[in-house]
Amino acid sequence: MNEETKKAMPFSWAFFCIAFLLVSMICSLLWLDIPIHINLLVSIGITLIVSWLNNGHDWKSLAETIDYGGKIAMQPTIIMMLIGCLIASWIACGTVPMIIYWGLKIINPSLFLVTACIICAIVAISTGSSWSTAGTVGIALMGIGAGLGINPAMTAGAIISGAYFGDKMSPMSDTTNLAPAVSEADLFDHIRSMVYTAGPGLVISLIIYTVLGFKYSADSVNSEVIAQTLSAIETNFNIGGFNLVLLLLPAVIVIGMAVKKCPSIPTLMISTLIAVILAIVLQGHTLSEMTAILDSGFTIESGYAEFDKLMNRGGLQSMLWTASLGMLGMLYGAIMEKTGLLEAFLEKMKMFTKSLGGLVTTVIVTNVILLAATASQTLAIVVGGRMYITEFKKKDLLPQTLSRTLEDSGTIISPLVPWSLCGIYMAETLGVKAIEFIPFSFFCWICPLLAIIYAFTGKFFWKTGEKASMRTYRPLTDEEKEALKSA
After folding, report:
1. What is the pLDDT of residues 200-244, one digit of tens each?
2. Which residue from 85, 128, 130, 484 could staple onto 170, CB 3.0 to 4.6 Å apart?
3. Closest to 383 measured CA to CA, from 369, 404, 397
4. SS in 3 state form for 411-480?
């Protein structure tokens, strides 16, 4: 049917579709144990039927919507596959084992969680990617934590907290560029604004990780586990002498190309290629073996089961489960967006935006719903931002207050949604179920709470003319210009 025959989607049906997804996902995770892919497929079927019955969409238009979802999912899918190859190559060449080896020798168990969070924050700032950080040094830190006897869920939480802080504060991050673009804000105004939520959020998280680390000490570490891990690395990988420097190359390349603002796909490809060459030269793998490792993942039988479990991972095939889930999530989100279901549901949210506190809380709640309903932080930022930008303009707020709020919710909360693309990726990559690491991902909880507190108290939400800004939603008056000059 053509556009004229389509009707506005009733709120009741939009609510039904979103409620069906959320309730079925939660029930499956907690009780029913239904595969998450099947849940999403059924939810996609429900939305297609509702769209067909209620607002005049024929199959041709719905098929075009599915094609649209496939297009926006393609690049993230390729990136996930490449990260699978990257993980396998970094293990095969010895980069990950080398980091684990020296981490076990150097890091104090009581400071491990704090150290892991800080390391991931630094790497993510350098690369602009929480995914690459978790898939490289994150895996190594999981190995160090296992050797030190640290709760894996705590380790994963510290890795995620550091990775998302660094991602958000990096001018090379895609979402850090997307949020101000959607909000009509300046990139560096946005990053400076993020300091007010991300900065205290990280400090509070580090304090909590320090307290949690008190229960771990050198005396509580199982020295036999560490000895077995070190022995397994020494026996199966050549990491001594000048090899130590060479094995840093894959990581240096990722950081260097990120600093040069190179795109993600060629960066991952080049780092993987260098790791493959190092695996052949330093570890004695053949080219045939390395192509199999890139496809199916690295495997080893060292005689120490726990070490083998940590090392046997990566490969393009290992990411297909996650990639297919991401594809389904993007399809669901595209259908919700293009058929008007999201618009019908979110329009009802605007009634709560009269006060500043209500507006910010509504943006955050909306983005949580968008994350749960679409599995995509990109859609959450874009849809949430464009939906509420008028309300921020009406309140005469600076653009970076909206862009910061979008990041504090649409981005930072994303790994806390177990069926979102970020939640699934972190769980699969770090080997810890999302429901287990969620309580320990303190940074991802604290930032949105700080944003809400600031909004209700009026702190750090600036109106036009109250703070120097590269962009504003309206021109400054002469009096405002003079006030800023004298400030």
Report:
1. 999 999 999 999 988 876 555 666 777 787 888 888 888 877 787
2. 128
3. 369
4. HCCHHHCCCCHHHHHHHHHHCCCHHHHHHHCHHHHHHHHHHHHHHHHCCCCCECCCCCCCCCCCCCCHHH
**133 vs 19: CA distance, rounded Å:** 34
pTM (two decimals): 0.75
Contact 297, 88 (CB under 8 A): yes
3-state DSSP percent of the chain in helix, strand and coil, to 5: 80, 0, 20
DSSP one-letter code for 260: T
CA–CA dist 7, 192 (Å, integer): 44
Cα separation of 82 and 294, whole Å?
9
Q: Tell me what the mean pLDDT of segment 237-264 comes to.
A: 79
CA-to-CA dists, residue 449 to 58, 130, 441, 445, angstroms: 43, 21, 13, 7
CA distances to 128, 154, 164, 347 from 79, in Å? 14, 27, 18, 34
Q: Which one, of 392, 310, 301, lies nearest residue 96 by Cα?
A: 310
pLDDT tens profile 155-186? 999 999 999 998 888 876 777 877 887 788 88
Output the CA torsion 380→201→217→429 (10° steps). Answer: 10
The dihedral built from the CA positions of residue 42, 44, 45 and 46, taken in this order, carries a sign that is positive
DSSP string, 37-48: HHHHHHHHHHHH
Taking the C-alpha atoms of residue 171 and residue 427, their distance in angstroms, rounded to an integer, is: 26
Token pair for residue 69? 């979802």
Helix or strand or coil: residue 397?
strand
Strand partners, 397: 463
